[in-house]
Specification:
By secondary structure, the protein is α/β, with parallel strands linked by helices. It folds into two domains: about 160 residues, HAD superfamily/HAD-like (Rossmann fold), CATH 3.40.50.1000; about 90 residues, no CATH class. It contains ten helices and seven strands. A seven-stranded mixed sheet has the order 1-7-6-5-2-3-4, sandwiched between helices. Helix 6 links the parallel strand 3 and strand 4. Helix 1 packs across helix 2, helix 2 packs antiparallel against helix 3 and helix 3 runs antiparallel to helix 4. It is globular. The chain starts with 10 loop residues before the first strand and ends with a helix. About 40% of the residues are buried.
């Protein structure tokens, strides 16, 4: 696939797609803005495998890891509870009874929060800077979109209270003039697709006015499905540099118009998205 002219790492997945008159931008949080929760997948999958192991005679750990990875990845971007609902379905399919999905969600959050506690503490103490825990260049991108008058929304599958707390810790909360959204106790009340529909209906505008950024399948599919421009952020969260090949493939499949590793090559990206400014 061709690269965007003047860039080394930005891929034009859909060269025939044309930038539009963007009025709104919607961002995923983890892996797109924040790196605080880097490593969550390596916590969730083993937790689920441990829960399932032994329920089906002869089923190996490797087989379970493949099964769990598939559904965890397919549901990434949706609220965490949906991954736990699927876990419960897998338990029942193996003859187990298990707990309610919220039990496993709480278990996962406890493990994850223990994993990232040190990062939050170091941020709060000033030992590390907020930009050390964000996708490189995100602050500059948010500034650029804000200066162009876009309404900017944050929408995450992570619980809303955590999203707000972590966005403040990273000092990016002030950019989201459209609001910050996340998972709720009543999970049926929120989804990224519902939020996008509400934005467009409220403003009586089509999806061609929507710009989306995300590293998960769900948000890219949601944006592209309404006719918006979806920028797939194939971020390598552990190194903060280069393309994550696995993310790239999934984001292309989901409908990304462009693939970027981060926001370092910001000027040519903005020149492409906003050719008249």
């Amino acid at each position: 696939m061709p690269n965007l002219p003047g860039t080394k790492d930005i891929e034009l997945v859909r060269p025939d797609s044309k930038p539009k008159d963007y009025r709104f931008a919607i961002f995923d949080f983890d892996g797109t803005v924040s790196l605080l929760r880097e490593g969550w997948r390596e916590i969730m999958i083993p937790m689920m495998v441990t829960t399932l192991i032994g329920l089906r005679e002869g089923e190996t750990k490797d087989e379970l890891e493949a099964i769990v990875s598939d559904f965890v990845d397919a549901l990434t971007g949706q609220q965490t509870i949906f991954q736990m609902i699927r876990l419960c379905e897998e338990i029942r399919a193996r003859g187990g009874r298990g707990e309610e999905p919220v039990h496993y969600k709480t278990q996962f959050h406890d493990l994850l929060l223990a994993h990232i506690e040190g990062r939050g503490r170091r941020l709060s103490s000033g030992e590390i800077e907020p930009d050390d825990m964000t996708v490189p260049g995100i602050r500059q991108l948010l500034e650029a979109l804000k200066s162009r008058g876009l309404m900017i929304y944050l929408a995450s599958g992570t619980d809303r209270d955590y999203v707000i707390e972590e966005a403040k810790l990273l000092e990016v909360d002030g950019y989201f003039n459209g609001g910050m959204y996340g998972a709720r106790d009543n999970y049926q009340d929120f989804s990224k697709a519902k939020l996008i529909a509400e934005i467009l209906q409220k403003n009586e505008l089509g999806g061609d006015h929507l710009l989306g950024f995300g590293d998960g399948y769900v948000e890219i599919e949601n944006v592209s499905r309404v006719g918006g421009t979806a920028v797939g952020v194939a971020s390598n969260e552990s190194t903060r540099s280069g393309i994550n090949a696995w993310k790239r493939e999934r984001l292309i499949t989901a409908g990304a118009a462009l693939i970027i590793p981060d926001y370092r090559e910001l000027d040519p990206l903005l020149a492409y998205l906003f050719p008249d400014t």
